[in-house]
Amino acid sequence: MKIQKFVLLVFLVGICLLLLTLQTRGYGSAAGDLFAIVTTPIQTGLAKASHATFGLWATYLDWKNVRAENRRLREEVQQLRVQALRVSDTDVENRRLRRLLTLQERLPLTTLSGEIIAREWGGWIRSLTVNRGRGDNIPRLSAVISPDGLVGRIVDVRPGASIVQVLTDPASTVGAHVLRTRTPGIVEGDPRGTLRFKFMARDGASIQSGDVLVTAGQGGLFPRGIPIGTVRVIDNRGAALFHYAELTPAVDFARIDEVLLVTGDTQRDVTAYFPKDG
Fold first, then answer.
1. Which helix (DSSP H) or strand (DSSP E) does residue 103 occupy?
2. pLDDT per residue over 86-128, tens digit each?
3. Distance of CA 226 to the CA centre of its chain
4. Which helix (H) or strand (E) segment is 199 a member of?
5. Suppose 120 and one of 65, 127, 236, 245 were both cysteines; which one would form an S-S bond, judging by CB atoms 3.0 to 4.6 Å apart?
6. What is the distance between the alpha carbons of residues 211 and 232, in angstroms, rounded to a whole number?
7. pTM
C-alpha cells in the first residue's frame, strides 16, 4: 500500500514538473492541453459521482416525504371514516326519534317515552329493560309499543326501570285479528323465538301469506289496531280444530332502542295511526 502511494506521488510530481517545464520553454498551450487531457476524465468522474450522490439523496428525501404524506393521508381518511360513522349514527338516531315523537303526538293515548337499556338473551330476545320505573308511575302490564308496532307488556316495575315481556316469549299471548279479513285468534310466543297465530280452522281459507295482524283490543290491556306481525307461513292441520300461521314480527326486538309506554286509557282504536303494510 505504501509503495502504491509513493508511486502515485512520484507520478503526480512528474506530471507537474513536465507541465512546468513545457510552460517555461514556451509550450504553454501544449501544457494546457495535456493538463486538460489528464484532468478532464477525473473531473467528469467527480461530477458524475456528485450528481449520483445528490440524486440518491433527493430520491431518499422524496421517499421519506411520500411515506409521511401517505401516513398523514391514511390518518385523515380514518378520521373522516369515524366522522362519517358518527354523522350516520346521529342521522339514524334523529330519524328514529322523530318517528317516535310523531307517533306519540298523533296517538289518542297517554304515553311515556323510554329507552331500552338492556336485553335478556336466550337464543332470542326474551325480555327488554326500559329506563322507566316506579318513580315514573308505570303501571304493571302497561302496553309497550314502537312506531313499527307492538313490543310487549310491562311485567315487572322496579325503582328505576321496568321489565318488558316481548311477544316472542313463550309465555306471551295477545288477542289479535287479521286486518284484511277480521279473522280472530291468539298470537303466541314460540319456544323457537318466533310468533304464531292460532285461529279456528273454519277461518283458514281467509288467511293468506303477507296478511297483517293487529291487536284485537279485548281485555283492556292493548289498544285495538297495533301491528303485531305479518303472516309468513300457514300451517294447515287438516281437520284439526285450530290452525296456526307463523308470523314475522312487526318489531325487530334485537334492534329497537326507544319505545312508548301506554300509561292511560287503552280503550281506543289506533289502527289509523300505524302503517298498513306491516
1. helix 28-106
2. 666 677 788 888 999 999 999 999 999 999 999 987 667 889 9
3. 29
4. strand 195-200
5. 127
6. 8
7. 0.68
Domain that holds residue 142: 112-273
Spatial distance between the Cα atoms of 7 and 249, rounded to a whole number of angstroms: 101
The 3-state DSSP class for residue 167 equals: coil
Determine, yes or no, domain membership for 260.
yes
Same domain, 53 and 81: yes
71, 106, 141 — which closes off a domain?
A: 106
Distance CA 10, CA 4 (A): 10
- Residue 196 contacts residue 232 (beta carbons within 8 Å): no
Q: Provide the grid cell at 118.
A: 338492556
Let me know whether 124 and 244 are in one domain.
yes
Count of domains observed in the chain: 2
CA-CA distances (angstroms) from residue 238 to 13, 169, 190, 206? 122, 27, 21, 15
Residues 120 and 90 placed together within one structural domain of the fold:
no
Considering the domain architecture, whether residues 60 and 156 belong to the same structural domain is answered as no
Summarised one tens digit per residue, pLDDT across range 255-271 is: 999 999 999 888 889 99
